Amino acid sequence: DQQVKQNSPSLSVQEGRISILNCDYTNSMFDYFLWYKKYPAEGPTFLISISSIKDKNEDGRFTVFLNKSAKHLSLHIVPSQPGDSAVYFCAASDVNTGKLIFGQGTTLQVKP
Amino acid sequence: GAGVSQTPSNKVTEKGKYVELRCDPISGHTALYWYRQSLGQGPEFLIYFQGTGAADDSGLPNDRFFAVRPEGSVSTLKIQRTERGDSAVYLCASSPPRSSYNEQFFGPGTRLTVL
Prior knowledge:
A: mainly beta; six-stranded mixed β-sheet; five-stranded antiparallel β-sheet; globular; B: seven-stranded mixed β-sheet
């Protein structure tokens, strides 16, 4: 039972345009949602998070939107840069244990 | 400062052998997590330590898997009688006390290959 889903395995965008990565979840008890970025042969690195009581969090070029009624969140990157090319994971935090539950990841390619 | 380190970076073993994977968390981080990532999938939770004790080991797939953190710092993940299906990247993460949004800092992982 996949509690966190990223339905798009890959996304390709042109440099300077907006990248939108999507994530859906099923458990309404999650308290935080996080986005991680992963380069090959490295561990995931934290990008941005959002509390379940918020609907938007912005940090520079990165903005995360949360729609609780739809159990959906999205990460917007604008403008996209070639260095943003990586695998992006959406993760949900379990309020009881602190473990993170990850989606399958979306590979973003930003073309120069 | 130093991040989470994991050794070895790569481990190749034969089916049926025993392996140990080591994780050095960031100094001062009280929580430590182990995850396993298979090809094309996101990291999957295995076990979580708060200090020396395992607070949640519900993700360990079976009793061949065991992890310890005897002094509340370094942790070792132990796999007995390895099987080909255990092949994956094993990730360790740590987080500081009173982390408001549960940000976890990941190591580079150990790639385990069981032949």
